[in-house]
């Protein structure tokens, strides 16, 4: 579905990404992990079209994203950054409605289909009680729920999540993980930057390990203690119980 070919990116002669090549399968959940400064967020900004000054090619279903307009990229990819800030008062309902912009246009009225998709998201993500709230008053967990619902409403095939579990309490993090699985079951291809191995590794179908702008591995999920140690500087152990995987730090 997504093919990265020979991606290189630098800032002021400093190499950020070096010769990145990998494929993302349709309807997969891919976890990208690596230490801070490894180039993970830059990679997301390149895939989503925010950064265009790179060499190499990115294909979505065989089409080069350099040939896409910003609006056409928005019909294919949603990128949810690590932190969400609302500098001005805005209702949750307005945020969700804005998710239909790539399909309906800025000044067009919203169709029955738009309203149907929004109602489905409100129900699926259990946010009806938040619709009239000012987004500035939401907790971290509530913001994550709203933004994931917005991504669903945007109705794009690919969702990029950058460290979605940051600042969440354990219960909210588990609920967010369940929402990611739910979105995937609805046909979405999801790519998640996260060092939270205990949350993401069990639900991932594929993994990408990156360190100092270079790939250590990209492919089907596999348990490789050496890979974890070389990429993150720490080992992990995988345990299975009742057909579920559990990840713990191997100190």
């Amino acid at each position: 579905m997504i093919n990265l070919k020979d991606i290189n990116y630098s800032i002021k002669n400093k190499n950020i990404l070096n010769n990145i090549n990998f494929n993302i399968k349709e309807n997969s959940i891919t976890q990208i992990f690596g230490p801070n400064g490894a180039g993970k967020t830059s990679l997301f900004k390149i895939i989503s079209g925010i950064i265009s000054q790179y060499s190499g090619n990115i294909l979505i279903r065989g089409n080069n994203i350099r040939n896409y307009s910003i609006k056409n990229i928005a019909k294919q990819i949603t990128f949810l950054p690590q932190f969400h800030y609302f500098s001005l008062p805005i209702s949750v309902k307005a945020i969700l409605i804005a998710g239909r912009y790539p399909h309906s246009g800025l000044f067009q009225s919203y169709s029955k289909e738009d309203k149907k998709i929004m109602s489905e998201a409100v129900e699926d993500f259990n946010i009806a009680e938040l619709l009239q709230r000012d987004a500035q008053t939401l907790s971290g967990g509530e913001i994550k729920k709203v933004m994931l619902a917005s991504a669903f409403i945007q109705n794009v095939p690919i969702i990029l999540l950058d460290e979605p579990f940051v600042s969440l309490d354990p219960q909210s993090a588990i609920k967010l993980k369940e929402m990611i699985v739910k979105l995937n079951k609805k046909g979405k291809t999801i790519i998640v930057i996260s060092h939270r191995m205990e949350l993401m590794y069990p639900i991932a179908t594929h993994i990408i390990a990156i360190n100092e702008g270079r790939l250590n591995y990209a492919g089907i999920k596999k348990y490789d203690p050496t890979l974890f140690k070389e990429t993150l500087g720490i080992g992990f152990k995988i345990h299975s119980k009742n057909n579920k995987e559990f990840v713990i730090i191997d100190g």
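The CA atoms of residues 11 and 173 lie 34 Å apart. The radius of gyration is 18 Å.
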